[in-house]
Amino acid sequence: MKGxxxxxxxxxxxxxxxxELSDPKPSPDQYVIEVHxxxxxxxxxxxxQGKYQNQPPFPWVSGAExxxxxxxxxxxxxxxxxxxxxxxxGGSQGAYATKVCAAEEQLLPVPEGWSFTDAAGLFxxxxxxxxxxxxxxxxxxxxxxxxxxAAGGVGLAAVQIAKAFGATVIATAGTARKLEVARAFGADHxxxxxxxxxxxxxxxxxxxxxxxxxxYDPVGLVDKSTKCVAWNGRILVVGFAAGSIExxxxxxxxxxxxxxxxxxxxxxxxxxxxxxxxxxxxxMKLIAEGxxxxxxFSDKEYVGLEKIPDALLALGGRETWGKVxxxxxxxxxxxx
Length: 336
Description:
Layout: E1 2-6, E2 18-20, E3 30-39, H1 42-48, E4 60-61, E5 65-72, E6 87-91, E7 99-103, E8 107-109, H2 116-120, H3 125-136, E9 144-147, H4 153-164, E10 168-173, H5 176-184, E11 189-192, H6 198-205, E12 212-217, H7 222-225, E13 229-237, H8 250-255, E14 259-262, H9 268-271, H10 275-288, E15 302-303, H11 308-316, E16 325-327
Parallel strand pairs: 9-10, 9-12, 10-11, 12-13, 13-14, 15-16
Antiparallel strand pairs: 1-2, 1-4, 3-5, 3-7, 3-16, 5-6, 6-8
């Protein structure tokens, strides 16, 4: 197979190279998937630099999110959930290759009518946003929801999920194009957070200036967000894309009865496995109802493993919106 193998840490994506590798050897509980599309994530950049919390032993194939077709099923079962030929998407180390191994719990069926490209970007963002808004914050009809970095992968998922549950959505982003994208995915109002007065602008959009009920924050804007959250409001801590870990004066939390709520979707497999199928059932229901669509960046197309470095550079440079997905053509011409 071909893949991007990391034998030593690199300074950045430009140093990544596609090479000919031996096919992956599945353990008895693993499927082998022919990869048709691979999604990029910020943690991929950290991992190739040796800066991520999960660093496999050298050598390893980079990438962790993909879609494709089942080539072989686990040796330890006679009735696999996904027979050979099944269209699946999932998350497993080694996605930047033409083949990848994955266990059954790391795979899901590609939704009906979805392309491999759209499905490749679903495994990380959709459950993070659904778990945050629905499981952790209890979003409901009538809520006002502020989504920060709304044109990002998790942001566009959050906008769609909040709208599907009947909320009014205010989206923030840092460029005119990203604000336009957020609106196209359903945001009712958009605010540029390069303007220092954005908390006031957000608050003035809400009924009687009361503030928003839920704030979805993958950036690290909790402190400033306390200025525009309503009494009994919930602030979801989703990530720190700004690059620094915030310190918040806790008197602000007390004065407005604010709940600050974390969401670490990746840890659900360890601490709360029973919630995983519930979340995915909810997501698949929204997809079936036409309330959730793929969030793949479409301003530029990336085709072939050789384009992975360019895709990662674009992602890291904040030039993109949604999920940056690379198509990986296979001999056979299956639908991308």
